[in-house]
Amino acid sequence: MSYRISILDKSPLAAGETAAQALARTLTLAQHAEAWGYHRFWVAEHHNTDQLASPSPELVIAWLLGHTRRIRLGSGGVMLQHYSPYKVAENFNLLAALAPGRILPLSTRALQQGLHQEEKGTFADQLAQLDNWLSLTEPGGEESLRATPIPPRRADGFLLGARLESAELAARLDWNFVFAAHLNGDSALRRAVFNRWRELSPREAMVAVQVVVADDPATAAALAQQVEVWGVELENGQRVTVGSEAQAVAFARQAGSRPTRIARRESSLISGTPEQVKARLDALQAEEQLDELIIDTPISDGPARLHSLRLLAQAHYGKEVLNVL
What we know:
There is one protein chain. This protein is an alpha/beta fold and about 325 residues long. The protein has eleven helices and twelve strands. The strands form two sheets. It has an eight-stranded parallel barrel, surrounded by eight helices. The chain has a three-stranded antiparallel beta sheet with strand order 9-8-10, with helices on one face. The chain is globular and about 60 Å long.
């Protein structure tokens, strides 16, 4: 049984911490992840929250590139409806020119609609535009427009989603697809999505999942109790997944639309000792024939999160891994 493990990092702030401290820990975690054998390191994008220091993954990726050597770095993900697809392509072509083969843009449906949405088009329209800009590598004359600089190798595209439509869109564009089980723990939906994905695409199967590992079951359970997943639906059609009921209410207020539904969602969180967590990850991999698991450890305590991911790497690779800094 062989599968890769990667990390999704949101740069969370523990109580009393500054953003600078949270970002310094992101750097430390990326360097450890490289030494411990994790395959990719994803930097999240979250806006207007005091709990996470991660509004601009492109900037953080550029910073991490200068302090790591091999690990693949990605944005998990770019909220495409906030931006111009052309500008997103420029950013990632620049990063891919700096570090060919290490850059991974991962697009996700926006949490909020942009201004003049009728001009921007649907998410599918914008993702197709982004794919086109990333694909335009040959000059077409003096008046042609490309997202320069053109890297020696195009950045790999990933689409994060938890719906059949997302898998179908990724297949249509020949992008990679990651099922967002860390946001939607519906196992029946996950199976249906992957069945459809395999009908449409020869590409690998990947899942993002929440994981907390500790030395003993009691500590793992205490850390897991900190984790909540809430879904919000607004009158204007917007949907978002957040980490608390208070965040759900705040999102509705900021969006200026009345909530039609705020409810705690079933979580896919996997917690326990290294042996317990590895057994559950192995079972999930076997059930869905997964090639890669992207690990989100959604606890703000920095040392506990670092220790959790070290224990997971140790269990996954079957050998002792040490802190390297």
